[in-house]
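Bug #2210: token dump truncated for Transferase?
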Amino acid sequence: MTRDERVAVVVITHQRRAELVRALDRLLALPEQPRVVVVDNGSSDGTADAVRARFPQVELVASPENLGAVGRNVGVDLLDTPYVAFCDDDTWWEPGSLTAAADVLDAHPGLAVLTARILVEPGGTEDPIVAELRDSPVSGAAWLPGPALGSFLAGASVLRRQAFLEVGGFSERLWLGGEEELMAGDLAAAGWELCYLPRLTVHHQASRARDPHRRRKDGIRNTLWTTWLRRPVRPALRRTARLLATVPRDRVSARALLEAAAGVPWVLRERRVLPPHAEARFAALEDAQRTSTARRYVS
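Reproduced locally. Full output below:
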């Protein structure tokens, strides 16, 4: 096997040593032999020691704190490959997918993000989100090799490093949870395209080591922040009203709304409305978001 020097993998992890070991076993067996960077977000379960002992070829960043999605920024900063595949600690790429992604990105210099088909393990069934990616209502350039997307799923995507750096990576403010939407809007505003490519495949065996209430709280908060950071007033009001009408009425949602409200000063200070061509992508997704069964804020 010969290493494909065009693409590397960045994995973020937190408190999931066993899942990470499984994912790394599979990533390091790929025919592309990708360079792999692991950013351990302040784990206390021996994750960093396990990586050092079992995978000396992996580049490890042992952060003393949980950086969330910003850990991906740290990983990307260590790389010089033109393309970066992101991976969560409970996901792994199908053999051949990274080379296929690099070939497509080579052939389409205006393309920033390729999102893969996601298979849920064990069993290999398609994740419900795949149908939404396949049937995306977003309009994109005629030359796109797959359906245009308005946003993407970081743990199942390959990005052009130049585009990622151009928009500043993932937001420190959002931390983790729907952080891709803000970046997707900024990529579109800068003239980049995003698309779904079904010949790429990511496997996802969801970890049980997760805090669903924290994920829901941060997801609601980040949706509101992203909406008011980038959407025009009327669409922002419309999406806010729909969100408030559909989230569970409990303490988790209340905390999310309080955190969102606390961020109003900086949101208004940093608000930058998307240009019409980028806003059109989010507008096209409104009906799909309203009826989606794969994107509900529940825990």
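Output looks complete on our side. The first strand starts at residue 7 and ends at 13. Marking as cannot-reproduce; reopen if the truncation happens again.
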